[in-house]
Design goal:
Layout: H1 50-57, H2 67-88, H3 93-106, H4 110-118, E1 130-136, E2 154-160, E3 171-175, E4 184-188, H5 206-222, E5 225-235, H6 237-248, E6 255-259, E7 279-284, H7 293-305, E8 309-314, H8 322-334, E9 344-349, E10 356-357, E11 360-365, E12 372-380, E13 388-398, E14 402-409, E15 412-418, E16 420-427, E17 438-442, E18 445-450, H9 456-466, E19 475-480
Parallel strand pairs: 3-4, 3-5, 5-6, 6-7, 7-8, 15-17
Antiparallel strand pairs: 1-2, 2-4, 9-14, 10-11, 11-16, 12-13, 14-15, 16-19, 17-18
Length: about 475
């Protein structure tokens, strides 16, 4: 078989290098990858405009304005993108090895591969102002063969596009929240006021979380969204859902608010650190629902202790503060952006199926003096939504959640953890200086002290196995806490 490196001797930037034994790089014909073998026929590369390429890759290297050079560079970018798409969507292990070799032969600066990954696939032009997306757990993770169909809930979302929507511009997402005409508005059928849903907290089930993750991915794939600016909110049941989603999907949102919502329960209060550092609005009204004001006040104190950036007001007890609190949250929301490479990560998890936040993953929980609890989640009864129906999922939760406080100071990663025996720390982009050794300490003990090299395989494997195209980590560091 022909070596793949011999077939992709192209320079991504289109200038400045020569191939051994050749006067200049040889550019494959547009749309053709050449035959690495019969298994690796990459899809037709998506057409990139020169403006798009320049905006994404202008820092790669200085290039001439020669039209032939520009054309060759754009063709190379399209092929790199096609290879990455193939790697992430269906390539088996032997083919993935070939794709990695082909991509490595390009020899581009590492951030170029990261940017191509984060583009997130295709962008469509829509002529209609609204669209509908439907997602199930099967769209994110294949369910076991014995899983019943009704155990894979479907989420249906209505998407409203701004006027003059362009697939080449990035838009913030107002998920049942906000009124800006420059944002993509999303409303799904679980966050609406829906009495038939009240006794089915899908955000706590594995299948429900898979379905919502699939919906997040569909939004990023189908529309030109900015995944770092997704703002979620809701009223009553919708606000209750939004507040819980921010706990169980702690690195998907940039801000969240619950209007006339139910505060987190005693089971969920140990997880409040998962809100950090995003703004959280909680506008409580005892007139709506039957939650006592004392529970709302207790949530405020717990959130303050956990360091949550909370905007809280009891609308009946403090009517004079209502508008100020709402305005303050609105201002914080407008400037809020999610940062998956922030130098601090606080995370809590009592559920092994929700074990990841940004660059920290809990791989093993400490079960010593930490008993498991059994929790049955029911579907609503078909005739009476207030009655419990069939069991949707049996959950196993820990009495004490594993907690992680991780901070990056210079090239040192300091970790303090409880009820966790094993972690993985993911690093990428400008989180550390790759020219210097990286030091990792865990609960006061040294876990690592050496230089690290970003890995293209880690970058793509992390995206493939997590099915996430909104973050780029190229180093994975296992950390033992035993």
């Amino acid at each position: 078989m022909v070596r793949p490196t011999a077939l992709l001797l192209v320079l991504l930037s289109g200038c400045g290098a020569r191939v051994a034994g050749a006067e200049a790089p040889s550019w494959p014909a547009a749309g053709g990858m050449g035959k690495l073998d019969s298994r690796i026929q990459a899809p037709e590369p998506r057409v990139l405009t020169l403006a798009q390429a320049e905006s994404l890759y202008e820092k790669t290297v200085d290039c001439s304005d020669d039209p032939a050079t520009q054309k060759a560079r754009l063709e190379a970018l399209g092929r790199v993108e096609a290879l990455i798409e193939r790697y992430l969507n269906g390539a088996e292990a032997p083919e993935r090895k070939l794709i990695l070799a082909a991509l490595a032969a390009v020899g581009a600066p590492f951030h170029v591969y990261e940017e191509v990954l984060l583009r997130g696939g295709r962008r469509k032009a829509y002529s209609e102002p609204t669209a509908t997306l439907r997602a199930t757990a099967h769209d994110f993770k294949p369910l076991p063969d014995d899983a019943e169909k009704n155990n894979a809930p479907t989420i249906e979302a209505t998407v409203q596009l701004p006027k003059d929507y362009s697939p080449f511009k990035r838009y913030a997402v107002a998920w049942a929240d906000g009124e800006s005409e420059q944002e993509i508005r999303v409303v799904d059928d679980q966050i609406r006021e829906n009495s038939a849903w009240k006794s089915t907290p899908h955000y706590m089930t594995w299948r429900g979380r898979c379905a919502l993750n699939a919906l997040f991915n569909m939004l990023q794939r189908e529309f030109s969204i900015d995944p770092d600016r997704i703002y979620m909110g809701g009223f009553s049941v919708g606000g209750t859902t939004a507040l819980r989603r921010a706990l169980y999907f702690p690195d998907r949102l940039a801000a969240v608010n619950g209007d006339a919502a139910v505060p987190p329960t005693e089971l969920e209060s140990p997880l409040l650190a998962n809100y950090n550092p995003i703004p959280v609005g909680f506008f409580f009204s005892a007139k709506h629902g039957n939650t006592p004001p004392e529970k709302a006040a207790a949530f405020e104190k717990q959130a303050e202790k956990a360091g949550v950036n909370l905007f809280f007001v009891d609308e009946e007890r403090e009517p004079e503060r209502v508008q100020r609190a709402r305005d303050a949250y609105k201002e914080a929301r407008q400037g809020a952006k999610r940062d998956l490479y922030a130098k601090q990560c606080d995370f809590a998890s009592n559920d092994a199926q929700a074990n990841r936040k940004a660059w920290v993953r809990i791989d093993e929980y400490d079960l010593r003096d930490n008993p498991e609890m059994q929790l049955r989640i029911h579907q609503p009864d078909e005739k009476n939504a207030n009655e419990k129906g069939a069991v949707l999922e049996n959950k196993r939760l820990l009495m004490h959640p594993a907690t992680v406080h991780a901070v990056i100071e210079g090239n040192t990663v300091r970790i303090e953890a409880k009820y966790a025996l094993g972690l993985t720390v993911f690093l990428g982009r400008a989180m550390v200086d790759w020219e210097k050794p990286v030091v990792v300490t865990a609960n006061g003990r040294n876990a690592l002290n050496r230089k690290l090299t970003p890995s293209l395989e880690t970058l793509l494997e992390e995206a493939r196995t997590s099915e996430r195209r909104d973050r780029a980590y190229s180093i994975a560091i296992p950390v033992s806490l035993r």
